[in-house]
Amino acid sequence: MAIRDYLRLNSKAAQAYGDLKKGLAREYVQDMEGYVEGKTPFLVGILRKVGSLATPTQADVTERI
């Protein structure tokens, strides 16, 4: 919910996230894991900005997203 709320309040971030997802969808057509891994740094950045995430391990991030 923190990510959704942040993106609703920040149109530039929402546009950047949409552009990222479109690019990843083209790049990882048959690779869902690659698609998710590609989104992870962006989403972790948002969670850190809103204070919802400390320093995660890769496993922690994958489980949350």
Brief write-up:
The protein is an all-alpha fold and 65 residues long.
Key words describing this protein structure:
65 residues; mainly alpha; 4 helices
Describe, in plain words, how this protein is organized in 3D:
InterPro entries: GrpB/CoaE (IPR007344), NT_sf (IPR043519). It holds the Pfam family GrpB. The relative contact order is 0.15. Helix 2 packs antiparallel against helix 3. The chain starts with a helix and ends with a helix. The protein has one domain. Helices cover 77% and strands 0% of the residues. The protein contains four helices and no strands. It has 65 residues and is an all-alpha fold.
